[in-house]
Amino acid sequence: MRTVHRGVENPNPRPGEPRLFTDSYTDNSPEEGGVYALVSRLPGAAGKGDFMTFLSNRSAGYVGALKWFTDPQFASMIAPKLADTSGKVATHYQVVLKIKFKDDVPTEITYVLGRQLT
């Protein structure tokens, strides 16, 4: 998955998933609406370590994503969604979150989709 001008692209959607998670703004106002954020945890260069990215088209999106992953209450909600059948959480993954905002402040954060990466 990757961020694009209008939201987050899902180039290989599974059945029932959209190809594009489209950002939206209320009443044509850029100060209120909903955006998607893409969080990726990937292997580091030359196979050493890992790194994470928090991407969105608006600051409210990546601020909301950072909050979700750094607040233990929210982080504990994501872990089971990224676990395999044995309960082990994937080391590398991508997560799509929807962040509603007002005046560029996140007001609601929702888990949308997660993918384990190999």
Description:
The protein has 118 residues and is an alpha+beta fold. It has one domain. The chain has 2 helices and 8 strands, in the order ββββββααββ.
Question: Short summary of the structure?
Answer:
The chain has helices spanning 59-70, 72-78; strands at residues 2-4, 7-9, 20-22, 24-25, 32-43, 50-56, 93-102, 105-116. It has two helices and eight strands.
Taken from the alpha-carbon principal axes, the silhouette is: globular
Number of helices: 2
Question: Which stretches are poorly predicted, pLDDT < 50 over at least 5 residues?
Answer: none
Summarize the helix and strand pattern as letters: EEEEEEHHEE
Q: How many beta-strand segments? A: 8
Structural class: alpha+beta
Helix content: 10-25%
Distance, first to last CA:
14 Å
Q: Quickly count the domains.
A: 1
Radius of gyration: 14 Å
Beta-strand residue fraction: 35-45%
Residue-averaged pLDDT, rounded? 90
